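User: Hey, my collaborator sent me this sequence without any context and asked if I could get a structure. I don't really work with proteins. Can you help?
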Amino acid sequence: MITARRGMTPQDLFRIQSLSDLDLAPDGCSAAFVVRQLDEAADAYRAAIWLVDVDGGCAPRRFTHGGTRDSAPRFSPDGRTLAFIRDQRDNQNRLARPQLWAIRLDGGEAWPLTDTANGAADPAWSPDGAALVFTARVTPEDGMSEAEKEQHRSRARVIERLRHKLNAEGFTYDRPPKLWCVPFAESGPQPATQLTHGDWSDTAPAWSPDGDRIAFVSARHQTRDRDAVTDIWVIPAGGGEPRCLTNGEGPAHSPAWSPDGRTLAFLGHQHPEGGWFNETLSSVPAGGAAAPVCLTRDFDHTLSGPLLWSEDGAAISFLAADEGAQHLYRVSARGGTPVSLLNGEQQVTDFAIHGDTAVYLATRATDPAELFAQTLTGEGRRVVHNLSDLNASWKAEVERPAPEPVWFASADGTRVQGWLLKPVGYREGERYPLLYNIHGGPHTQYGYAFHDDFQVQAGAGYGVAFINFRGSTGYGEHFAEMLAGQMGVLDYEDLIAGLDTIAALPWVDPARIGVLGGSYGGFMTSWLISHTDRFAAACSERAVNNWYSKVGSSDIGYMQYRQLGCAPWEDPLLYLQRSPIYHVQQITTPTLIIHSENDLRCPIEQGEQLFTALKYRGVETRFVRFPEENHELSRSGKPSRRMQRYEEQLAWFGRLLAKRDARA
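Assistant: No problem. I've predicted the 3D structure and written it out in C-alpha cell form, which is a compact way to encode the shape of the chain:
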C-alpha cells in the first residue's frame, strides 16, 4: 500500500540537514564538509564536520563531536590533520568566540590551536603544514584589564568614518579584521603573530605554493568608505610591507595562486561604484610586473568562487549564474571561451577538483544540497557517485512540488523567466490561492535551488510563483543594468506582466493572490500594493519603504546613490517619489509588516514608517517586530523566531485568502 506524502511544514526545518563548506583531501580520496541542523530543544544551531570517501565506498560519517558549531574544514598538506573553526560554550554556557582547532584524521580528540581575544576565521595551511594563517579582528580593548574594558565600554563612541557598522556585526569602525599566523602544534594553543596592521580590513588570505608569500584582499585607498573598490595584495609570509597587485579600479577578491606561484587569479570588475556589473575572472603576475588581464571578457555571466587552477596551471574553474541555475565552468589561463563542466537544473554551491573528477555540492528546487562526484573527461560524462543523501528519510515522507518554468513578455517586450509550484494535493479542475514571491538584492536570482519558504507555502495549499525581474543576475549584464535608475519602474512592469500571466492560469484564483518579499523584495511588495489593488493580502518583510531616510541610517545606505543616479539631497523629490511611503495613501491591501529590531541593512524605522501610515489611515495592518534579530532572520535567526515568522505569515494569508468564489 502506497501512503500519500504530506506537504512540508515549518517544523520540518528541524529535520533538514544543510550541507556546505567542502574541502577535498590532497590525494583526492576523501572529502570533508559541514552539516548544519536546527536544534529545537536548545533553540540554536548545531554544525559538525563530516567525512566521505570520494569513491563512494562507504556512507558519510560524522567526524567532529563536542563543539556547538564546527565549520571551515581544511585538510593539512600531508592529509593527516583537519583544521577547522569551532564555536563552543564556556563554563557558564555562554557562546565563546570561535577559535581554530585541529583533529587527526586517524582518530583522537580535537585540540585548540588558537586562544585569541577576538576569535579566528578563514584558516589556510602553509604549504609545509608548519603554520596556519587566519583572520581575526583587532580592537581598542585588546590588552586591557577587565576594569579598563568596562571603563572603555561606558564612554561615548566617537565615529569619523562613513563605513562604521555592518549588519549582523554591529559597530566595526574600530575593530578591523587583520591577518594572523599561528604555528601548528599538538600541545595546545600557541601565540599568534599579527601580520597586517592599520585601520582597514584585511581578508581572504591565500598562501603561495612556495610558502613565502600570502595574498589577501584589502581596501587601503583614501576613498575606501565611499566606493566598492578592493585590491589584491601580497605580503611576505613572516610579515612586512605588502604590495598591491591590482589597479584600484573596482572590487577585486577571491585570490587564487597558480601552481607555479607566478600568477594570481581573482574575481571582480572595473567599476568602482560596484552594483550590477558582471563579476569577471582576471589574472595578474604575482610579482606585479604587469597589469591584470580579464580572462572572461566576452562571457556574459556573473561569476563566483571558489577559483581552482588545474594541476598543470593551464586552466581555472569557477561558478557562474545561468537563468536560475549555477553551473561549473573552466577557462584557459590565457583567456577565451569558458567550457561548461557541470550544468542542468541545479545550483552548484561549492566544488573541488582532483584529476578528472569534480566533487561538488548542489541543490535542486526540490532538494536541499547534497554531495556528488562526476568525471569531467570523455564522451560519457556522468555522475559517478551520489556521495550523500542525508535527507533521504525526510524526502521520502514529504512531497515537494517541482517548479514549472514560465517565460513571458514584459510591457516593452523583454522576455522574463519565472517558475510556478502547484500546491501539494493539487487536483485538476480546482482553483487555488497563490503567493507571489519577490526576491531581494535586487542583483540576485531565484531558480533551481531548494527554498524552504516556497515548499512550506506549497505544503500549506498555496500555488507559488517567483520570477527573475530585470535587475536579476543570470541573464547577462545588460538585463541587470537596465534596473539602474529604474527601481519601481521596469521591475514593476515585469512583476505585473508576470501577474497577468499567472492570474490567467485555470488553476489560479485571481481573487486570492497574495504578495510577499524581503529586503528589496519587501520594497517591491510595498511598491506593488501602493500602485495596484490586485492583491488580496501582502507581507512586506525587512523592507525599504523610504529611500530618503534609508540612505543615512543603513549600514550600506550610502551605496544606494548609484541606484538612483544621485544623492538624496541633490534630488530629494526623486528619492521620495521612488519610495512606497510617498504613495501610501493609495494602499488598501491588508498588510503584514515583519522587521527585526537589530536590522542595520534596512533599519526598523523603515517598517515603523509604513506601519504608522497604514494604521493611521485605517488599513488593516499587523506589525511583527523581532527583538535581537538582524536582516538575516529568515535564514539564520533563532529557530523559535523563524517558526514564529512562519506562523505569522501562514495565519495572515490563511485568513485573508480563505476560499471564496472568485467568479461571484
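In plain terms: The longest strand covers residues 508-518. You can pass these C-alpha cells on to your collaborator as they are.
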